[in-house]
């Protein structure tokens, strides 16, 4: 069975490979996505490390001069996706979106090079590029110098329709949005996708940023949506630390120092987002300066960074208390807003499981890590390589033959919690 999973996972990665980048799945997502690609490289490293490095290099070829790495690169024309390049209007040589995604690149690069040290010289230019991205985050998304960065669009979190955004989204209007036709609901069940009202607000934000000419240093202050997502910051902190280690090994001392400093500031500031009542971290609405009472997987993900040991232990207990057959639910099943089939409002996502399990292992919570790994592989055996899964029944939902799900399976099989 394990062998069959392994072979199927590799086949999916190869089927979705477009030469120098990999699409998340055919149809629903026909371009290159930022954090999908970096996590995909982790799967590719098991059978073609060279190709894995290309995946990350391709993404960084489309980095903006300001340092931002866009969340989508529209390598080829495809009308099957909305919003396409004309809606973003970013005026890049190869069209891209104008927002970003969770910065897992530093972590992925380090893990890839740990298993393929002969690629280090080729990878060296990426150290500066990834650092420029980290620097950009702190310069443009933390103008007050708090140590934590904000997202200005829910798509940046990677958790598009999380319950976390419901309250801050009330500040985003829907009037004046150019009429459009959604394409996602033609590929997937509308009951498993974000609502129409949420889509109107997603597009309103895109049009607002486009009207400002995508000057990324102006968008944070101009956005009615500014949220400090603990999971996003946990990923950034971990990526800074991994990149710092890698840079030290390669003798790039200045790069190492800068990343370590950013990580330390982030870690110190993260504590303010801890909720004892929930046994996890919470998002901060930067406009109202209040914590958002929404226990999502975004508040569990900081365990990916070296948070205090007692917080890691509480997070392990919180996941146990979810009580779902399959873990990790993207929203606490006991909390308002939970929906076991609707995208990021309850379903399990393997990439999140992977990062939480990895963090648990580093924190010494090996049994908690093992439980997540087993639950993840059970899902694949029961329901195949779906985009996401119902945590109660294990039903596979959304897109099929999903790239990053396959990549995570290769990781789980090789490096079981
Ligand atoms: C969805 C997910 C996002 C992912 C993208 C491509 O938008 O919410 O996290 O990057 O699909 O798979």
What would your notes on this structure say?
With 417 residues, the protein is mainly α. The protein has one domain: Glycosyltransferase (Alpha/alpha barrel), CATH 1.50.10. It is built from 17 helices and 9 strands. The chain has a 3-stranded antiparallel sheet with strand order 3-6-7. Strand 8 and strand 9 form a beta hairpin. Helix 2 packs antiparallel against helix 3, helix 3 runs antiparallel to helix 5 and helix 6 runs antiparallel to helix 12. The chain is globular. The mean pLDDT is 97. The structure holds alpha-D-glucopyranose (GLC).
Output the CATH class name: Mainly Alpha
**Euclidean distance between termini CA atoms:** 18 Å
**Could you list the spans in which at least 5 consecutive residues all have pLDDT below 50?**
none
Number of helices: 17
Summed up, the domain count is 1
The share of residues in helices is 40-55%
Helix and strand run: HEHHEHHHHHHHHEHHEEEEHHHEEH
What small molecules does the structure contain? alpha-D-glucopyranose
Biggest pleated sheet: 3 strands, antiparallel
Overall pLDDT: 97
CATH topology: Glycosyltransferase
Strand and helix layout:
Blueprint: H1 2-15, E1 32-33, H2 34-44, H3 49-60, E2 72-73, H4 85-88, H5 105-115, H6 120-140, H7 154-157, H8 166-169, H9 184-187, H10 196-211, H11 216-222, E3 227-228, H12 230-249, H13 253-270, E4 274-275, E5 280-281, E6 284-285, E7 290-291, H14 309-322, H15 350-362, H16 366-383, E8 388-389, E9 396-397, H17 403-414
Antiparallel strand pairs: 1-2, 3-6, 4-5, 6-7, 8-9
